[in-house]
Specification:
411 residues, FAD/NAD(P)-binding domain, 6-stranded mixed β-sheet, 9 helices, 26 strands, elongated, binds flavin-adenine dinucleotide
Length: 411
């Protein structure tokens, strides 16, 4: 296009799909760019802080605290609330669920992941997942409401049992928090509370499989001490409306059955390119699928230094989102792209109050109160929005110092 002397070139349109950890990190970094106009699209008007979903599910935090409103977060970024239903990378155009189409110069796909049931019969119908605010609300309602229903004689006493499937960080955190909630409920349902149980099932040989074996052992011992029935090598083969059936033929009857095992990238986007196990799309060293399509976070398959795809965790998504923003700026300056390198800062999981495991490096790991305080501090630091941070900090002070968790009224 011929430009008049002194007329600035029009900004290029960058469309970011997904206002989660990766998409938001990219949009935030690019928002002040003089070369790009950023449009952020998400089906929800908030960024969900998934690491604390389990605290909403167990009535420790109100749901607003972990949902960061993105519509007005960045003045320079246009936000559209919609579901993207189609991407045409040749025509550089996307389609929204309202039928509208949108052209772009560059696309950043940051749509995250979803739960998978591995096709096990009954799991989709008879277990609760924990991926969204609605899911956490449903778990909380089941956990609390069952006490009232049992008291009223509407449900059998086994309905107070909780079974959690999946011994990764989410399952471990949830199991500890549910056990603590059951302890608190003693004040309200003194005669029923001792009957409530929590069972944590893991199909593999140990909890926290990505951690060092000693951390797995620590988590197992700590949960067992809290009264959680931890079972490893315990694969679920079927879910029924009242129970879970295991490979060894046993059956666990429980009123709340939570599925915290396995996530995959949304299968809808498999058509875009080569994928690996879990529907994750393979990208080049710069996180590109092609010249104008960038993929970050859970949906991207990018090998780490050990040759295995990077884990589906928030720090990977954040670093990748920022990396893409940097490459777009470099391109405008006529500079060459840089390959993405993940800076691994370690992993952590909380087990309960004053109980957590932290692994900075395989040889630098700790647990107990120090690990728990580290976990609290890092989660506060990663939260978006000063208001959410302050509110959660206040809730935690109340919950952990006064020792009575906030309990949400369930109607
Ligand atoms: C219960 C739970 C606990 C977790 N705990 C931890 C933890 O402790 N530490 C950790 O590091 N990681 C944790 N994770 C993983 C972490 O949340 C993810 O790795 C991270 O969110 C990935 O970031 P992302 O940007 O790829 O996707 P997300 O943050 O999930 O964002 C994806 C966004 O895309 C939107 N979207 C999806 N499809 C469409 C569409 N078609 N149209 C419009 N919008 C769309 C979604 O609404 C969402 O807002 C946890 C995950 C869960 C579910």
């Amino acid at each position: 296009m011929l430009m008049e002397f002194g007329t600035p070139a029009p900004k290029k349109e960058v469309v970011v799909i997904g206002a989660g950890f990766g998409g938001l990190a990219c949009a935030r970094k690019l928002r002040k760019s003089s070369a790009y106009r950023v449009t952020l699209i998400d089906r929800n008007p908030y960024q969900l802080f998934s690491p604390l979903l389990y605290q909403v599910a167990t009535a420790s935090l109100p749901e607003d605290d972990i949902a960061f409103p993105v519509r007005t977060a960045y003045r320079e970024v246009q936000f559209i609330r919609a579901e993207v239903t189609n991407i045409d990378t040749e025509a550089k155009c996307i389609t929204l669920n309202n039928g509208k189409t949108m052209a772009y110069d560059d696309l950043v796909l940051a749509v995250g992941s979803e739960g998978t049931t591995f096709g096990i019969p009954g799991v989709a119908e008879h277990t609760l997942q924990m991926k969204s605010v609605g899911d956490a609300r449903a778990i909380r309602t089941s956990l609390l409401r069952n006490y009232e229903s049992v008291e009223d004689g509407l449900l059998p006493i086994e309905s107070l049992n909780v079974v959690i499937v999946g011994g990764g960080p989410t399952g471990v955190e949830l199991a500890g928090a549910v056990r603590e909630l059951q302890g608190e409920i003693k004040r309200e349902f003194e005669h029923l509370a001792p009957k409530a149980t929590v069972t944590l099932l893991e199909a593999g040989p140990r909890l926290l499989p990505t951690f060092q074996p000693s951390s797995s052992e620590h988590a197992r011992n700590a949960l067992t001490k809290m009264g959680v029935d931890v079972r490893v090598d315990a694969a679920v083969v079927e879910a029924t409306p009242t129970s879970l059936r295991l490979k060894d033929g046993s059956e666990l009857v429980a009123g709340t059955r939570i599925w915290a095992a396995g996530v995959v990238a949304p299968p809808r986007w498999k058509v875009l390119g080569d994928t690996e196990r879990g529907n994750r799309i393979k990208v080049n060293p710069y996180l590109q699928l092609n010249d104008s399509t960038w993929i970050v976070g859970d949906v991207a398959s990018f090998a780490g230094t050990d040759g295995r795809p990077l884990p589906m965790i928030a720090p990977v998504a954040i670093q990748q989102g920022r990396h893409v923003a940097r490459q777009l700026v470099r391109r405008e300056r006529g500079e060459r792209f840089e390959s993405f390198t993940y800076r691994d800062k370690g992993q952590m999981a909380t087990i309960g109050r004053r109980k957590a495991v932290v692994e900075v490096r395989p040889w630098l790991r700790f647990n107990g109160t120090l690990a728990w305080l580290t976990w609290l501090a890092l989660h506060l630091a990663y939260l978006s929005g000063g208001r959410n941070r302050t509110s959660i900090f206040a809730d935690w002070i109340w919950n952990y110092l006064v020792w009575t968790p906030r309990r949400t009224i369930v109607d």
